[in-house]
Amino acid sequence: MNLNMNSMESLVAQIQGLSGSIADVNQLHSLLKQSEDLFHSELARLAPLLTELDPSIHSLGYLYILEACTSAPISKEQANELVLSVARFINLCAAEQIRLAPDKFISVCKRFKDQVMLLEDPMRGVAPMLTALRKLQLSSEHLTTLHPDFLLLCLLGKCYKTGLSILEDDIFEVDQPRDFFLYCYYGGMICIGQKKFSKALELLHNVVTAPMSILNSIAVEAYKKYILVSLIHLGQFSISFPKYTSSVAQRNLKNFSQPYLDLVNSYGTGKISELETCVLANNEKFEFDKNLGLVKQVVSSMYKRNIQRLTQTYLTLSLQDIANTVQLHSAKEAEMHVLQMIQDGEIYATINQKDGMVRFLEDPEQYKSCEMIERIDSSIQRIMMLSRKLTDMDELLSCDPLYLAKAGRERQRFDFDDFDTVPSKFTI
Amino acid sequence: MASSSSSGLTFKLHPLVIVNISDHYTRIKSQSQPPPTSSAANDAVSSPPPPRVFGCVIGIQRGRTVEIFNSFELLYDVSTHSLDRAFLEKKQELYKKVFPHFYVLGWYSTGSDAQESDMQIHKALMDINESPVYLLLNPSINHAQKDLPVTIYESELHVIDGIPQLIFVRSSYTIETVEAERISVDHVAHLKPSDGGSAATQLAAHLTGIHSAIKMLNSRIRVLHHYLLAVQKGDLPCENSLLRQVSSLLRRLPTIESDKFQDDFLMEYNDTLLIAYLAMFTNCSSTMNELVDKFNTAYDRHSRRGGRAAFI
Asked: Signal peptide: which range, if any (chain B) (predicted)?
């Protein structure tokens, strides 16, 4: 016992001593790795040790001790304290030091998230998780395991705007495929909550078409939402998958979403009544998937779609005629719908309230302004960067032995110019 | 030797003649390139004097107008200091069959100035044409010179030191072009030494041309501006006719401050940017397509087997 106590203290002293330069920290890291079991055996005494260390300078040592603390089962009373201390640590720690032990950091944050959810106050965890995420990321294009946890907290705490800020970044590197699936799924849900349907569509599309070797439930749920969002945003849904979808997904996803595909068919007819019967028929299934809210939005988007179709045929139309064509109940309702659509920027029109006429206008954007130039210029820059990245990836993949082996097998046996046999296998 | 002519003849020269002569000269010069000297010590090797080429010019003489349409080459016999007569007559006959109206009007040569020995050749030709012309092309490239390096000489009988002598006198000429010649001259003018076919260099050449034109316009207007400032200050006397010309010129210059110009300019700029964006999109999509194909071949277990590329 005494020995352990002394060794703990000596360890603490070493942590305090060796947290200066990078070489020292590396040495400390290897030392800490060796003394891991020591931590786990001395759980009771760990808490007072934390007070001796400063999280911003001795981040690595603090992290190890904290991780050992959180790995033990925690009672409800301690949970609050733990949440506070972990939040404080996350805010103060030094990013370079914790990047040396990312898995410890991730496990600490995951425990933190569990405690916060246990306390049923997910909003407390949003800000620290965001800081933790930013500190763990190697670059803004890197997806860590903390991303989906953060988005989950945002969803539960209804802080959608904070979640949106993370979703703006383009992702180029992923640690674990499961993180990616969860990230895109939660991200899609947040975007639906904020009514940013195009971004939601993009994220859900990523889940559905991501490479997978076996079907996972995240993709199945995402596919259902994907159908609904596509109906709301685009007014149509194509059943064929793009060619980069994994064959597993192509074959199996449709089997799980039959009621949704029925919805697509009835949407395609353009009649509200058919759509509503379909919704009623599958009501329990939609409710079970918790997609009922989205389904209701699909129904209301049907009206919008029909009104938009009217703009292509008529230049002016009376509100009563609109109500009749779109099968709304009254001209007042039609006026409300049209007004909402004008405000959202979905159509361009003016309503003349005196005689109840609506005049449809053209898109006033003339593409003549300097702001438009800047927008196009920034888009061109983005696509140039993307193009460069794509060419690099293409070259990398061309050198992949797995690809070369398969490609070599498919070539003709004889070369065209000379009659030598073409090597059909690439042995590396 | 080079005073201006008084014969009163007007000369019209077609560009075909100039191109022919320069082509002849370039060919002979490039075929007679001496091998490069290898000795390092002997750096100051003077290049051999450029070879002289000779030939005949033909055309039509109507009244006082002499129009030179075409030319052909002749061999110069150094020993007899005369042109190959038999060949000349044979060529003349052949050309007569195709162009019955063309006559031998004279001869041409290259060099910087007319020489004494040329008079012999000139006299020899006098039996075909009683007053032949001598066309001289100066092949040395002089960037400062603005005119064509072509001079036309006639022969006149002048009394020098009591002896009547034939000397060469310079005549003025104009360039006359047929539509076909104009097109080919334009084409030759725009040829670039390195790959002239590539679109990028053509665009760059076009833009450089516009840039230099605008630069020149800018500098000329600056001169006018300078002049006007001086007149305003009172350094220079005020000339009303000049001022009127300046004001009419200024009215012809486009004004870039109007709204309409901004609109049109921005719209066209946006269009160009959009086209560039579209091009990049297409490029990116094609790379992405290839990437996806490779990925599917490598990693998707159940992708299409076979699909061998067919031999064309």
From this structure: none
* pLDDT exceeds cutoff 50 at A292: yes
Three-state secondary-structure class, residue A362: coil
Residue A347 tokens, joined: 């159509």
> Binning pLDDT at 50, 70 and 90, where does residue B252 land?
confident
Query: For tokens 């970044």, what's the residue?
Result: A169
Is there a contact between A29 and A67 (Cβ–Cβ < 8 Å)?
no
Task: Give the integer Cα–Cα distance in Å for A120 and A70.
Answer: 18
**Residues in chain B within 8 Å Cβ distance of A416:** 311
Residue B102 and residue B106: Cα distance in Å, rounded?
12
Using a CB-CB distance cutoff of 8 angstroms, which residues of chain A are in contact with residue B294? 394, 397-398, 403, 407
Alpha carbon distance B16, B184 (integer Å): 9
- Tell me if A207 sits within 8 A of A233, measured CB to CB: no
Q: Per residue in A104-118, pLDDT tens?
A: 888 888 888 888 888
The segment with the largest mean pLDDT, out of A111-120, A226-235, B32-41, is: A226-235
**Are A247 and B302 in contact, with CB atoms under 8 Å apart?**
yes
Closest of A220, A216, A156, A222 to residue A188, by C-alpha: A222
d(CA A261, CA A244): 22
- Contact: A384, B280; criterion CB under 8 Å: yes
With H, G, I as helix, E, B as strand and everything else as coil, classify residue B197: coil
Please report where in the chains the tokens 């003849």 appear, as a residue: B9
Residue A81's identity, in one-letter code, is E
Cα–Cα distance, A317 to A324 (Å, whole number): 11
Q: What is the largest CA-CA distance in chain A?
A: 94
